[in-house]
Write a structure and sequence with these properties.
The protein is an alpha/beta fold and 473 residues long. The chain has one domain: Rossmann fold. The chain contains 17 helices and 9 strands. The chain has a 9-stranded mixed sheet with strand order 1-2-3-5-4-6-7-8-9, with helices on both faces. Strand 6, helix 9 and strand 7 (282-285) form a beta-alpha-beta unit. The model is unreliable at 1-44, 60-68, 71-76, 304-324 and 423-428 (pLDDT under 50).
């Protein structure tokens, strides 16, 4: 088991989780709800179908249905446990796990033998709310060097390439493969990532949960490969998509991507560079569209830690764990990350306090350049328009909320304006859609909209691909 220690934030965590739970208990949140019945979409106008689903999302105050007080309390307890597990995982991901040797030994290079190991057909729910947990194969996928083989993984700092760790679950038949990209400093071990993977598998897709550079197993096995906050991650996701498609041609029809937060930004950058590689579609959930704004927010230690806003941002994790708000959460993650880098001889003595801005200057800008210049609404709009001009047939869908305390709503409004969109939605039959919902917090759509969010991703990723017949399950 991976270590899950709260460390210095533990004393601050419990009271806030209790407050968050109290908020949950009045809301009746259950995650995830059963997918609404209905056959996979077949008509060509995918945008119209997405618009129809989004039109059902409530506006104004979110009302969470619950049939009884007991159900409300139970939902609060479940959400509390779900929240606590992922916060602990975020902290644990910044260090080398105690069972690192066993995990490395269990991770195989992606080759034809792995591709031949197919999973079962999507199982009936039998009244269960949660899709069954899938059995994922741990795999290595080399990127950044066309000559590298899986035998070269994990890579050394002088190898000239990088290997990304992932968890793969293949359908028994040829199907669409969805890359699931976790949020910044999260990993494939996060429960919300595995839950979404299970949901996609239940809908009939093969799934690859990927740890990008400086995340999860990729980080602690190759800590020399620092994050670039979007400068390189997009091209490396494309390399993963191409490699899986080429190595597993009998299992993979095409490839799509679903990214959360920073992972959504990385997926957007991949789309902007080569949309034809991700013909299965791209969904970016709560992506940072103005990196300067997001880094400033992550560096803020003066927040008020309001319990309600914390809850809305929280599921599946809360950035409001400490009295100072978002900045304290990231400061704790970065403190532990610096300690790991210092132990590996990749930096000097770690500092007790380091903000996201300071970390970016020392570990990103000094080595790769300033990503804040590339990640702005104006620059992203320019890249998206160029990608649309390629007429690849790939759809890019961006899902944001006006109450997002991490990435904010203003960048999404600016991007919508740059793309010439009206009220945050796509125009006509454009391949790009941007939806700005009233509520959803930061990557919390699966909890805030437990019935509609699964329908939304089913509508996108089942377009033009075989999917499980939900009506019969």
């Amino acid at each position: 088991m991976r270590r899950r220690s709260f460390g210095r934030v533990q004393a601050r965590l419990l009271p806030l989780l209790i407050l968050s739970c109290a908020s949950c208990a009045t809301s009746g949140v259950v995650y995830p709800a059963r997918i609404a019945p209905g056959a996979a979409p077949t008509q060509s106008d995918l945008g119209a179908r997405l618009d129809a689903v989004v039109a059902q999302f409530p506006s104004g105050r979110v009302v969470y249905p619950a049939s009884s007080l007991l159900e409300k309390i139970g939902a609060g307890v479940v959400t509390l446990a779900y929240l606590a597990a992922d916060v602990a995982q975020s902290i644990a991901d910044q260090t080398v796990p105690a069972d690192a040797k066993q995990l490395l030994a269990a991770t195989r290079g992606l080759d034809a033998s792995v591709c031949s190991e197919r999973g079962p057909s999507p199982a009936p729910r039998d009244g269960r709310r949660h899709p069954p947990r899938q059995s994922y194969a741990r795999v290595w996928i080399p990127v950044s060097d066309g000559g590298a083989t899986t035998g070269d993984c994990p890579a050394n700092s002088g190898a000239g390439h990088l290997c990304l760790a992932g968890r793969l679950a293949l359908q028994p038949g040829k199907s669409r493969l969805i890359l699931v990209v976790p949020g910044l400093f999260h990993s494939a071990d996060h429960r919300y990532v595995m839950d979404i993977g299970d949901l996609l598998y239940a809908q009939g897709h093969s799934v690859l949960l990927i740890d990008v550079r400086a995340h999860g197993q990729t980080f602690w096995s190759q800590p020399w490969a620092e994050t670039t906050l979007g400068l390189r991650e997009g091209s490396e996701l494309l390399a993963v998509a191409r490699r899986v498609r080429d190595v597993c041609p009998d299992a993979v029809q095409d490839v799509g991507a679903l990214g959360f937060s920073g992972g959504g930004l990385f997926a957007m950058r991949a789309f902007a560079a080569q949309p034809e590689v991700l013909r299965g579609g791209v969904l970016a959930v709560s992506p940072p569209l103005d990196l300067a704004y997001t880094i400033e927010t992550m560096s803020n230690t003066q927040g008020d830690g309001d319990p309600q806003s914390c809850f809305m941002a929280a599921a599946p994790f809360s950035p409001c764990l400490a009295e100072g708000g978002i900045g304290h959460y990231f400061m704790e993650l970065l403190r532990r990350r610096q300690k790991t880098l210092s132990e590996k001889g990749l930096m000097g003595a770690p500092r007790e306090r380091v903000t996201a801005t300071e970390f970016m200057k020392e570990h990103v800008i000094a080595k790769h350049g300033d990503p804040r210049r590339a990640i702005t609404p104006v620059r992203l709009a320019h890249e998206i328009r160029k990608a649309e001009a390629r007429r690849s047939g790939t759809s890019l869908v961006i899902l944001t909320s006006r109450d997002d305390p991490v990435v904010g709503d203003k960048p999404a409004a600016e991007l919508a304006g740059e793309l010439g969109m009206d009220k945050g939605q796509g125009l006509g039959k454009r391949s790009v859609r941007l939806y700005r919902l009233d509520h959803g917090g930061h990557i919390a759509f699966p909890v805030v909209y437990p019935g509609l969010f699964p329908r939304f991703i089913r509508t996108l990723f089942c377009h033009g691909a075989p999917c499980a017949d939900e009506a019969a399950r």
